[in-house]
What does this fold into?
Amino acid sequence: MTIQMFEKPLGMRDDFPFIAKKKAELRANGTTMIQQAGYDLLQTPTLEYYETIGKISAIADNALFKLLDSQGETLVLRPDMTSPIARVAASKLLKEKMPVRLGYYSNVFRAQKREGGRPAEFEQMGVELIGDNSLYADAEVIILAWNILKNLDVKSSRFVIGHTQLLQLILEDFGLDQPQIEKVRSAFVSKNSVGFESLAKQLTIAPSQWESFIGLMSTSTVEEWQQWIDPHNARQAALFEDMKKLKKILDRSGLADAVTYDLSFNSHMTYYTGLVFEVYGAGSGFSLGNGGRYDGLMKQFGLQVGATGFGLRVDRLLEIISAVSEQEEHTLILFDELHEDEAFDEAQKLRLQGVRVTLQFAPAVGAVEEFSKHFSNVLRLEGAN
Amino acid sequence: MDALTIAMPKGRIFEEAYELLVKAGYDLPKELDDSRKLIVEAPNENIRFILSKPMDVPAYVEHGVADIGIAGKDVMLEHDRDVYELLDLGISRCYIATAGMPNTPMNEVTPRVATKYPKVASQYYRGKGEQVEIIELNGSIELAPMIGLADRIVDIVSTGKTLKENGLVEYEKIVDITSRLIANPVSYRLKQKRITELVDKLRKQASL
It folds into this structure.
């Protein structure tokens, strides 16, 4: 294949100035809110070891960009931010402070095999709250994600919340073994109702339980979950109580109409161990982000602590939020050799006043009229005056 | 009422599905005379139909330009797209099978299979523990064994008439196919009420 000069590797994108600007605003907006909520921002390396982050990240192996370092070790371009942050927290930060609240805004890399429309490098912003097992931690991250979306003016944002552990316990109650549970869960992940019903026929579900089993897939409120909760099972009852409390907190925080509680909702990411959620908004055909409790991931780093968080897809947010505010002030100063000093001083003065200034040696511009159109003000320091 | 965009395959499936929607109580335009139109509006229901190639329906739905779509299971097996599969409509029933010239074993050195469904074919033979060479064709797959391009074909069979007329026989059935109602994951959440209502109405019709 001959590569043409203008081509980029599959899934790579240029950020043209207007996009870069929109992105910078989004970043400033989001990270300010993250910090205001008490989170410290951090940055981890672009390259990580395949053996650790590559394997732990739960991103499919063929979606990882791999390369070798000079010692022959396999490296990956970081495919997500949650696992590197878990690494940092486990090895260092948690020893200083616990619980620890960390936020990030970073690019991640996932190789694309299919056609266009999906970036192989994109930015994510999010938070991780590590060392807190309580439902208040879950509520905190959901509310923060909600507030960020609200602040960005995302229309009809919606959260879908499920609970992987509760789902596991309920499926066990139907007498399913682990391989069967895995099959059911994967039908749930892709909301494959047809596949789920034909799977249900193969499983040994008692006829009296059939309706209840099929119904698992179509819940939208916490109250509806009640019918599957066995009050004599202490674990189930406690988790369900937590869900009810969580709902109360979210309702109070303005999310009452924005949340769907779907018992069958769960993730293909196996490290999620409790509450999981996904975020949607009008204008994008893809989810805007997701999150949940991932105590299982911390375990892989040798720590028995609770952790929860979310990540938002900056590329998808960019597509749906409205264009940057009105045209900003941008002054052009055109000068010639005679007015060199004056021009430099003027530019300096205006910039100190907060004005955006482009300083341009006039004879170097071919079409002055055309060039000037890109600016709101033009100051010409040239000629005889 | 949320606007709903539905991607439909042109031709027979569209007619069957359209009829199903009318029976389910949807107030759709009676006459669809201009068959070359790509977009059909049903203003009374605030529904817009996009008419596309059957193979393309899941792509429209995955990218969210259509909220829901009607797609053959064959297409969904071949193109692994992130869409929710909500309902088996039970229409356009057929199956994917292997076929070839009568009484011909597979070539032992280079067994070749011609198909429009390379992924389905490859998965099927791998599942049987056989390594075959796949040749992707776009139509008239039956030609391949007749002119010696391949030992077997993997293709859709509905009546078996085409196979018979060309002197081919069916060997193994791979999977049953019907049309499915699929949804974009975001639309499913944001327009859940309308979509669930549609699913319930169609389910009643489909089970009749």
